[in-house]
Amino acid sequence: MATEQGQVPDAYDDLLEEYRRATYLSDAGGVLGWDQQVMMPEEGTPARSKQSAALSAVQHDVLTGDGIADPLAELEEESLPEPQSDVVREIRREHERSVRVPRDLVERISEESSNALPVWERARAEDDWESFAPVLETFVELKREYAEHIDPEKDPYEVLFADYEPYLPLEHAERILERLREELVPLVEEVRASDVDLTLEFDGTYDEDDQMELSRDALDALGYPWERGRVDTAAHPFSTGTQFDARVTTRFDESSPVSALGSTIHEFGHATYTLGLPDEEYGTPLGKHRGLSVHESQSRLWENHVGRSAAFVEGFLPRIEEQFPGLDLTAPGLHGHLNRVNPDNLIRVEADELTYHMHIVLRFEIERDLVRGDMAVSEVPAVWNERMEEYLGIRPETDSEGALQDIHWSHGNFGYFPTYSLGSVMAAQLFEAAEDEIDDLYGQVREGEFDALHDWLTENVHRHGQRYRTNELVKRATGSEFTADAFLDYATAKFGDLYDL
């Protein structure tokens, strides 16, 4: 029976109560995952894999159980106002996908992921693709099975992509990636042909503790709330958590005093999105991020449009010089160094802002073909090397510099990689809109004042949680559909100036 207008039915409250339980279980699993990558003893994997699998199974039981199914059925006939209707839409989508996947498959995927992490770490350290290949083969099979359960009529890669970007069609993502490949490769070639050299040479080694102090100072400057977070090191930097506890990690290269600034600020961007979600909505879809494209837009916005800007470098340089006395730096010189294009770099997480997207396109194409059955796992290293040569004119000499360098496939995270480039493109569109609305934004950045940008992003992106679909969120924030236009204009202008093109 329909409720009176404006009245929220009891079934809605029952639905939220049960859904919160599923969220809490997922977040507890996230803490276990953080610990495994940051602090867990080396031989803790056998127990951790069982713990993570058990949590995943219980969460799956909650998502697929009557406690969610029954109130969803009751609400089918209700005409709910916004944002309650948006909340039900999101829970229904998650429930319907989850209920199609057998519990034992969910448990096995989680356990395999925990077990795979040390295998990948050893394989990368020892440049041993053959030891990792069986793990990847297992994940390809498991994720094909997972996708088939969800929608046997759909392209399996499209199903997996929707786990990370639920409302942006794969065709839309592919168009953006194809446009980046078409327009950035010629731009990279122009940069390669330029006589401009922006690289700074640093002598000696730089202590990791000192670099951590600098990273903490950068987080302080940007407004990271330590009462709700912490910074640690990890082999592959990441951020995880909730609006009450959003942790970041970074990593160091002792040959450069500024090696960690980019990754630290990048992960800060992720954390500040998480922390900007409304406290009172924790556990509900309105207290969760919209998807990984939007999440990546926040990290790339802070890393590239703020952290690598001339204004930020000018304002933060005195702190760098204080931490590392004796450096002979100028703000223009350091700005150029942080934005230098290095097509000869083989490592994605160290890639510059332009060539980064060719790293993503390559991974996207490979994992898509793996999942679709168009490529065998044994072919991956050779295809990787061939496409690196085709897209960037370089060829890895080892698999550690090639197909073994990323952590994602050791988690079975197929469909994740495209969101990195989608997020970079979205970041440019969002920052352009913020610049239009915030008076002298870069002047504020130069002075170390970030409140206006924080407030704009919270108002236009963070506070909405999952209320709006991806394109709708972008359009509300910027006034335009989500496209690559702003990013390509920004990249052409920025690197044209830097390299006198």
Task: Note down, in words, how this protein is organized.
This protein is mostly helical. 62% of the residues lie in helices and 3% in strands. It is built from 20 helices and three strands. It has helices at residues 10-38, 45-64, 66-75, 84-99, 103-126, 129-150, 156-164, 170-193, 208-222, 261-276, 292-307, 310-323, 331-338, 356-372, 380-392, 418-437, 441-446, 451-460, 470-478, 485-498; strands at 231-233, 239-242, 245-250. A three-stranded mixed β-sheet has the order 1-3-2, sandwiched between helices. Strand 2 and strand 3 form a beta hairpin. The longest helix has 29 residues, at 10-38. It is globular and about 65 Å long. The N and C termini lie far apart (68 Å).
Quantity of strands, as a count = 3
- Average residue-wise pLDDT: 95
Q: Give the H and E element order.
A: HHHHHHHHHEEEHHHHHHHHHHH
| Helix proportion range | 55-70%
| End-to-end Cα distance | 68 Å
Q: So, CATH architecture of the largest domain?
A: Orthogonal Bundle
What structural category do the secondary elements indicate?
mainly alpha
Largest sheet: 3 strands, mixed
Q: Strand order across the biggest sheet? A: 1-3-2
The CATH topology of the largest domain turns out to be Neurolysin, domain 3
What count of domains describes the coordinates?
2
User: How many helical elements?
Assistant: 20
**Low-pLDDT windows of residues:** none
CATH level 1 class label of the largest domain: Mainly Alpha
